[in-house]
Amino acid sequence: MKKRALQISLNDNIAVALDRFLAGEKVELYNIEDQFINKLTATEEIKYLHKIAVRKIPINEAIIKYGEVVGYSCKDIGAGELVHTRNMASKPQQD
């Protein structure tokens, strides 16, 4: 069985997990038309419907989901990492 995540827009830097992933599991990224986009490896557990980084996201970069900014990274986030309140904030960090 393929384990999938949904990346709505090619501009998104996160995807939504459509399955539960354990660290080390392969994640296949698909778009809304169910077309394969890419593959990455989960670096930690990603629960169903949680966000996963599809590429490296540097600190203070916009988190983009569904083509819209939904927050900002408050630390560097690696590809395959869970994107959640521990590494995402509503506005960029101040120096």
**Cα radius of gyration in angstroms:** 12 Å
CATH-scheme architecture: Roll
- The amount of helix comes to under 10%
Order of helices and strands: EEEEEEEEE
The termini sit apart by: 46 Å
Number of strands: 9
Major sheet strand order = 4-3-1-2-5-8
Q: What are the low-pLDDT stretches, counting only 5+ consecutive residues below 50?
A: none
**Strand pairing plus helix content: what structural class?**
mainly beta
For the report, how would you describe the main beta sheet?
A: 6 strands, mixed
Please indicate the percent range of residues in DSSP E strands (runs of 2 or more).
35-45%
Overall pLDDT score:
95
CATH topology: Archaeosine Trna-guanine Transglycosylase, Chain: A, domain 4
Task: Tally the helices.
Answer: 0
Tell me what the structure shows.
- Strand 3 (26-30) and strand 4 (36-41) form a beta hairpin.
- This protein starts with a strand and ends in a 6-residue tail after the last strand.
- The relative contact order is 0.23.
- It has a six-stranded mixed beta sheet with strand order 4-3-1-2-5-8, with no helix packed on it. Strands 6-7-9 form a three-stranded antiparallel beta sheet, with no helix packed on it.
- It has no helices and nine strands.
- 0% of the residues lie in helices and 37% in strands.
- The protein has a single domain (4-89), classed as Archaeosine Trna-guanine Transglycosylase, Chain: A, domain 4.
- It is mainly beta and 95 residues long.
